[in-house]
Specification:
- It is a single chain.
- The chain is mainly α.
- The protein is built from 2 helices and no strands.
- Helix content is 83%, strand content 0%.
- α1 packs antiparallel against α2 (39-77).
- It is elongated.
Length: 78
Amino acid sequence: MAIYLHQFHQTFFEESMEMVAEMESELLRIEANAGRISSTSMFDADREALNTIFRAAHSVKGGAATFGSAFAKAQLAA
């Protein structure tokens, strides 16, 4: 049974754009809070934001690797 990844491209791109927007939002929130929080407590205050950023980046990277592999094979076969 063949799996055709092209049927998932649009979903991957839409979800990736949402994750990039989420990362941007969290980064801007961290930046905005940087001047108001002491450096000692800043990490604790933004721990969840950092976790959100890393989870989103990991998801985008994983999806890109999946499709990147398929794209490479298609390019080599062409």
